[in-house]
Design a protein that fits this description.
The chain has 21 helices and 17 strands. With 559 residues, the protein is of the alpha/beta class.
């Protein structure tokens, strides 16, 4: 019998074959006319909030270690919602009016969920965050049991109306073959977690998904964005073949001898050893924001120095590229009193803050980095985020020299690390040659570069089709960056999401990238793809991709 195909949005370039397990957590609310003891219900609500906070803190730490710091940050937002005074006040007022705590929570959160659902992009996704917090409280208040998604039968494909961050963080790629949801888009939390876990996933399949029964065999094709219901033998075989590559510890070369460094994006120290275990040659993006989060004041110089030395010691034969503090946009640090901006992605973020309001923090960080370069086992490289002008770059380099002078005055050992620039804006692409005259390397951040080249908010589902780095405009921007940097003998890496997609590895090799850095889970697949790629053939294919005019033509060229 021929399979039936449902079409949605693919979240990961992976396929999985398995058996459907529907996830539909049900919560039974008390009757509205039930008489209540208001004081007792307030106490029950307070206890539920305390328990929920403890759960969220545990899940945050577990997710940071297992998936990544960026993904774990969603639980910080959940804690904020849990303790939001407006919501708390609404719950307590409802209890005073005679409602049980569970009903009061359902009503108070429901109003805010409805408001967020009427918004766009990132704000609309807050509705799912609120649902997650609401459902957690309701489970605690009604005595409901939490479904353990970490203990599903091997080969399960989870189907759901939606999956919250708490749900998705439980999924184990070793046993779960994938998941598919009725709602959601490529920038939803479920999709982001799926990519970090290298878990096959398709979201936004629509109500037709509800017609797929428990126990049905399906293929989740996260590349094509399809769910194949009752697949045939050929479709089963194709899905089984997509099980991921073995770990390759050595640096890899193309089949005709061009070496490509495959490194890891790392958001906190706990991710270093797992990255090494997945075969990372080094770290292509070490985000330093973790040092500044979850605290009341910034870290001292010594603490930053020790963190970087630990990273260098984890990769004694490799390179660790540290990005200086990159805040603003969607990254907020309360004690820095960041401004409220109408469009923060176009505002005071990245190097713009380091050179002005956060200049003292910047100088402290640079001193720590210079000291670490002298004492760590590996090779330290330092790159500056969101540089758009030569003036910003020269001011950054001057700040490094000033930090070195301060260490000289203190009689402290240091070394000047190799310096680089993040290419995230069209301006950086156009100025790549001038930047490369002044630094040793450039690293392309395709998430932001795509956002700015395509004028499409990467958090807005309505323009999600535009936030694809294989659009010809973005591909040409990558090619231009590489050509201009190589003209000045600077090496070029990529640390955006695109680098971790093995389906485009050949294109990136053909465009001339020297290094690819990604979430650790996809390193084996990309290393395998590099070793199977011939550089000469990849160059020809990339040249063809640069001559076409549409995204579909790019895809046709690189398939």
């Amino acid at each position: 019998m021929a399979s039936r195909t449902l079409t949605g949005t693919g979240a990961t370039p992976r396929s999985g074959l398995g058996t459907v397990v529907w996830y539909d957590p049900e919560i039974t609310l008390p009757d509205a006319d039930e008489s209540v003891d208001a004081e007792a219900e307030r106490d029950r609500f307070a206890d539920a909030v305390g328990t929920a906070r403890a759960e969220l803190e545990d899940e945050r730490d577990a997710t940071a270690e297992r998936v990544g710091e960026d993904e774990a940050a969603v639980f910080d937002a959940h804690i904020q919602f849990l303790e939001d005074p407006t919501i708390k006040e609404a719950v307590e007022e409802s209890i005073e009016a005679g409602h049980p705590a569970a009903l009061a929570v359902d009503d108070a959160f429901g109003e805010h969920i409805e408001q967020f659902e009427g918004m766009e992009g990132r704000m609309a996704e807050r509705a799912d965050d609120l649902r997650d917090v609401r459902d957690r409280l309701l489970r605690l208040l009604t005595g409901g049991e939490r479904v353990n998604l970490a203990d599903l039968p091997e080969g399960s494909v989870v189907l759901a109306e939606r999956l919250t961050p708490s749900d998705t963080a439980q999924l184990d790629p070793e046993t779960v073959a994938g998941f598919a949801t009725v709602t959601g888009g490529r920038t939803s939390h479920a999709a982001i977690f799926a990519r970090s876990l290298a878990l096959p996933a398709v979201v936004g399949l629509g109500e037709e998904l509800n017609d797929v029964d428990d126990g049905t065999e399906v293929v989740v094709d996260g590349d094509a964005g399809e769910l194949l219901v009752e697949p045939d033998d050929a479709e089963r075989s194709a899905a089984r073949a997509d099980e991921g590559a073995d770990v390759i510890e050595a640096t890899v070369e193309t089949s005709d001898g061009r070496e490509i460094e495959v490194a890891a994006n790392v958001g906190r120290p706990e991710e270093l050893e797992p990255a090494a275990a997945r075969g990372a040659d080094g770290v292509g993006l070490y985000r330093t924001e973790f040092l500044f989060l979850d605290r009341q004041s910034p870290p001292e110089e010594d603490e930053q120095y020790e963190a970087v030395v630990d990273a260098l010691d984890t990769f004694p034969d490799g390179r660790v590229v540290v990005r200086t503090l990159d805040i603003g946009g969607d990254k907020q640090i309360p004690y820095l009193d960041l401004p409220e901006e109408e469009n923060p992605f176009l505002g005071e973020r990245g190097i713009r803050r380091s050179l002005d309001p956060d200049s003292e923090l910047f100088r402290t960080q640079l001193r720590a980095l210079l000291r670490a370069a002298a004492d760590g086992a590996g090779e330290l490289n330092v790159m500056f985020p969101l540089v758009a002008t030569v003036e910003e770059l020269e001011a950054s380099i001057e700040a490094v020299e000033d930090a070195a002078a301060e260490l000289d005055d203190r009689g402290v050992d240091y070394e000047r690390p190799s310096l680089g620039v993040m290419v995230e804006t069209p301006s950086a692409v156009f100025m790549a040659e001038e930047f490369a005259e002044r630094v040793d390397f450039l690293s392309i951040g395709t998430n932001d570069l795509t956002q700015y080249v395509m004028a499409a908010d990467r958090e807005n589902e309505h323009v999600g089709h535009l936030h694809d780095p294989t659009h010809p405009g973005v591909v040409r921007a990558i090619a231009d960056t590489v050509e201009r940097a190589h003209a000045q003998d600077a090496w070029v890496g990529m640390c955006g999401e695109m680098a971790g997609n093995p389906d485009v590895t050949e294109l990136l090799v053909g465009l001339g990238l020297d290094e690819l850095s990604m979430s650790a889970v996809t390193i084996p697949d990309v290393k395998a793809a590099v070793s199977e790629t011939g550089y000469s053939a990849a160059r020809e294919r990339a040249d063809s991709a640069l001559r076409v005019a549409t995204r579909s033509e790019v895809h046709d060229t690189i398939q």
